[in-house]
């Protein structure tokens, strides 16, 4: 049997063009407003080519979601925020990294998954599930560092590492919505700054804790004389290390 690698490469390129076009248009216009004709025109391909690779727009959206997960997964897996030794610093570095991505036009930094799920959560269950899997799956990558920070800073809160990880995504997705409303990244960057301050305060300022009898207690290990948890290498207001 003879194989024709050039033809296979051309087919793969055509499919990628359709996925690229769909991703760009959905981020810019939304899922509902993006038509198959628009996707084909943007990709420079015919409708016949579209239906050669995808049975419907929903089928294309699911493929785009899968590729989005692969691309963003690689981006985050190799990012520098994994380098700090302190797990809290890794979590804060992650938030800083997310802020660093907020540049360019709104469709260039907002989330494909967040955009699609807002329109399809009721009408296209398969797309909703794909979006949930993507956002929740990404949040899960933060749980280990949050859990390690909870141990290192001797926190025993009523919240969990999983719930805080999901909260980071709530703030980010909300920040993207505000960026769309105000047509720019500045408001999103401010929201991410607030997220960073909030997370840092959870670990460095006293929080009510519930003991096994359900009583709330502000005392506990790992706090300095002011009642705050001490971060290794952290500096006080006078510049001295705590």
CATH architecture annotation name of the largest domain: Orthogonal Bundle
Biggest β-sheet: strands ordered side by side in the sheet: 1-2
* Largest sheet geometry: 2 strands, antiparallel
CATH superfamily of the largest domain: Tetracycline Repressor, domain 2
Instruction: Estimate the global geometry from the Cα principal axes.
Output: elongated
Percent range for β-strand residues: under 5%
Average pLDDT score: 87
At the first level of CATH, the class of the largest domain is Mainly Alpha
Computed structural class: mainly alpha
What is Rg?
22 Å
Encode the helix/strand succession as letters.
Answer: HHHHHHHHHHEE
State the helix count. Answer: 10
Low-confidence stretches: 1-7, 218-228, 235-242
Gap between N and C termini, in Å?
71 Å
Briefly note the CATH topology name of the largest domain.
Tetracycline Repressor, domain 2
